[in-house]
Amino acid sequence: MQEADKGSKVEIDGRDLRIGIVQARWNAPITDKLAQSCTAELQAVGVSHKHIRHVKVPGALEVPIALASMADSEEFDALIALGCVIRGETYHFELVANESGAGVTRVSLDHQIPVANAILTVETEEQAWARAEDKGRDAARVAVEMANLMEDLS
Question: Distance between CA atoms of 52 and 103, rounded to whole angstroms?
Answer without folding.
Answer: 22
